[in-house]
Amino acid sequence: MTHTATAAGLDPATLADMLRVAGSTGFRRWEDQIRRTGGCSDPIHITGWTLTKDKTTGEALHRYSTSDEPGGRLRIACGNRRASRCPSCAWTYAGDTYHLIRAGLAGDDRRDIPATVREHPRVFVTLTAPSFGPVHNRPASGRCRCGSNHHADDPALGTALDPARYDYAGAVLFNNHAGQLWARFANRLRREIALRAGLTRRELADSCRVSFGKVAEFQKRGAIHFHAVIRLDGPAGPSTPPPHWASTHLLTEAVRAAVAHTYTTLAIPAAGDQPTRTLRWGSQLDIRPIKAFGDGSDITEQAVASYVAKYATKAAENTGTLDRPIGNREALVLLDVPDHTARLIEACLDLDALYPDRRLAAWSHMLGFRGHFSTKSRQYSTTLGALRQTRADYRAAQEQHAFDAEPDTVLVLASWQYAGHGHSPGESVLAATIARGIQLNRQTAREALRDQLAREGDAA
């Protein structure tokens, strides 16, 4: 909910509600709940109870009920990955993604990923969309085709020079099929690697595995592109060394060949007033070797993991679109969506009847894109679910320690019900303050870790 700001910074109603919350008898417990959610901006409210009993004696070891909580509710984190919806939960998601990507680059003994994975061939690849028409940009020469030198925050960047001739339909159809284009690329990449190794596809599977972790990002023009870590392993994954013929050079050449191959194109049949289209990757292809530590020439493990984690929490908001489904065409005017983005959304709505199986209207707020923003192959590294389970196990161990009992000797009975979500206006202000403090502490800890890794790199 948006609240009107005054010269003092808060409108009177929000300020009054904030004082009410801060002055309530249960404020300290409410504050503790919010800290435990990481400062979540839209916490889930639940009511209920738990009872922990000794399995043998039936003795009650621990009782908990939300009836003693502020408002009779327990608040838990919403877990939304979008930074535009909940910055604090997105921060946690970004941290998990960072660990997932870096574990596949540097290893993680706790996840059975050996440090020797650093010796495997790996590259950081960026696959882009083709051109759908000239847009305002900042070329190396500094001067855009329109004759202006755009500053970095100019809202005109990425918008069409001539909207009447820009292929908005082609742009959203590319976004909509981007996941299939990636699947075709991944399949062809394995074939190209096999060709360069003088093997069949079956023989390649017996000696080498291709692993990847990727993230999607929207360019300012509203076109999706992918950043991917691609790694060559032995047949059993990161725990086995790649074959002798596997090299970064071979992998780089295979990526180039796969992107250019006709197999990685996708034919879209004509429908209504739309012509037959052939979707393919753009000509801008970036392939960079990944080094364990920086030497000034190649991208490092730290930089790659940070980059992927940054975009894992974003969607299409940087293009001016919304972070939730759009109800109807009229909402574009009421929500003040920029013209270029509105035209992309309208293209989705117009094409929905022509390509009903693509659900373009349902994904119009994503400019047609309907895939996952971050994905990985099975053997690349750990999983987000495993990382979340680690946190859950840690919290459970803390609770078990509180009443000094072994996990297999207790029985936990529980009953929970959903009771709403979110904050009141005053609670939102206070929760945001808590979230900023938590984020500052986390950032300080991460910077200390980064400095430590840099020192280790210098020592190496």
From TrEMBL:
The organism of origin for this protein: Streptomyces toxytricini
Record protein name field: Replication initiator protein RepSA
Pfam family, one: RepSA
InterPro entries in the cross-refs: RepSA, RepSA_streptomyces
